[in-house]
Automatic annotation (TrEMBL):
<keyword id="KW-0732">Signal</keyword>
<dbReference type="GO" id="GO:0008444">
    <property type="term" value="F:CDP-diacylglycerol-glycerol-3-phosphate 3-phosphatidyltransferase activity"/>
</dbReference>
<feature type="compositionally biased region" description="Polar residues">
    <location>
        <begin position="279"/>
        <end position="297"/>
    </location>
</feature>
<keyword id="KW-0547">Nucleotide-binding</keyword>
<dbReference type="InterPro" id="IPR001736">
    <property type="entry name" value="PLipase_D/transphosphatidylase"/>
</dbReference>
<feature type="domain" description="PLD phosphodiesterase">
    <location>
        <begin position="168"/>
        <end position="194"/>
    </location>
</feature>
<keyword id="KW-0808">Transferase</keyword>
<keyword id="KW-0444">Lipid biosynthesis</keyword>
<keyword id="KW-0677">Repeat</keyword>
<dbReference type="GO" id="GO:0005739">
    <property type="term" value="C:mitochondrion"/>
</dbReference>
<keyword id="KW-0067">ATP-binding</keyword>
<comment type="function">
    <text>Functions in the biosynthesis of the anionic phospholipids phosphatidylglycerol and cardiolipin.</text>
</comment>
<keyword id="KW-1208">Phospholipid metabolism</keyword>
<protein>
    <recommendedName>
        <fullName>CDP-diacylglycerol--glycerol-3-phosphate 3-phosphatidyltransferase</fullName>
        <ecNumber>2.7.8.5</ecNumber>
    </recommendedName>
</protein>
<keyword id="KW-0496">Mitochondrion</keyword>
<dbReference type="GO" id="GO:0032049">
    <property type="term" value="P:cardiolipin biosynthetic process"/>
</dbReference>
<feature type="region of interest" description="Disordered">
    <location>
        <begin position="274"/>
        <end position="300"/>
    </location>
</feature>
Amino acid sequence: RSSWLLLAPLLTPPVPVITAPPCSLCPEGAHRFQWIRNLVPEFGISSSHIKVLSSPSEFYELLKVQIKAAKQRVVMASLYLGTGLHEQELVYCLEETLEKSLQAKGSPDLRVSILLDYTRGSRGRKNSRTMLIPLLQRFPKQVRVSLFHTPNLRGLLRLLIPERFNETIGLQHIKVYLFDDNVILSGANLSDLYFTNRQDRYVLLRDSPEIADFFTELVDAIGDVSLQLQQDDTVQMMEGMVHPYQGDKVAYCEIANRRVMEVINSARTRQEQLHAKTFHSSQPGSSHLSQQGSQASGDLKPEPDTWIYPLIQMKPFGIQIDEMVTETLLTEAERDARIYLTTGYFNLTQAYMDLILGTRAEYRILLASPEVNGFFGAKGVAGAIPAAYVYIERQFYSEVCYLQQQERVQLQEYSRAGWTFHAKGLWLYLAGSDLPCLTLIGSPNFGYRSVHRDLEAQVAIVTENKALQQQLHQEQEQLYLCSGVVSTSTFEQPNRYVKLWVKLVTPLIKNFF
């Protein structure tokens, strides 16, 4: 328990200052969300290119298939790579694909870039680094492994906080898996649990070169300000780059902000130019010529009915786009709209809680029951974390009851024997609609860590297409099917007993998990 005392210098959270974007909601359907493109690039695609996955095994098999089929690039960003047999098979797939590329005529085209968190990826003797070193040794010119180290873990704090606890200060939490022009967005890490019995969310965007380019550039930008894994298991920064914990913190964060915002702004400019070009070519008198030109070049694409908006949150670098968009979506949700929000770790920021309790939409919030919490049964202090989540949940439920909002704001607990729960995101149903027109999917948990400490990315998928809306609706229904509604009696069960010391400590440490 004394380990938590080492975090004392960081127990007083900074007060966030948020400037909400100007909101120009259009009155009808999916187009009401076009204000998001004032902040980030807007990628218009056909819904036929999107597939929603439902199970860990489906996710794992897709990863292997996509790795084996890759010709130009494999880009994978995750918290860590596990060390079991499933993870080893992924490494073998990468090795096999790189070997084929090496044997092809001419210089090999395939490039592999992997971004992980430094502290999580270095935990234990056998870790993410030792799993990937053979690839670096065999394919030094084709493979890059970047390990992000938060600039907030430095000096005496870095020396004193033990392994595992040091991960509470800040992490690389983005999960993007990209193969040529195919992109998988998820909240799942590259670990055996996420391939077998840890429920998450996953969406595949096929043949989406602009989106793949954006996430490649984003991972490259974070990689450039990260430690580079070497063949001898040492790490070093790129030449001329400020060190994340030995160099000047302000200078490092400014450089990181500049690199990431360059990616966002340049992609936004490109997409605006593309949008303008498409708009002008669709004017009367030009459509026939435009279509002829497209057909001649063989790249005639179906008309977009779905729009993808990448939402980035990197508070250590002063980037708060995801927070701004999420807060605006919650603020602007109309009466009789329904928001299904899910998180594996129910620990909402005060701003999100205030918006849920103070706005007009209906909320159905899905969270993990103690038995499916990822920390259930853990040793030491970590074993008390599910109880801390129960305490946070009970406080929120009490507030809902105090405000007499039980009909409008409903909590539901996911429970499934032999499984754990890690799904996060939301689905937005407009008033009068039985299908969602918007979903958020990616790495954020809507908690303090996601907003203030970690590097996060998700996408807003906005669609007019009924078939895709049906896919998203089925995904939501399938998750909520394994849940029960929370009531006062829920907290009277023996397994919901929270020890006094947990109640006393939770307010102090809730910003770290």
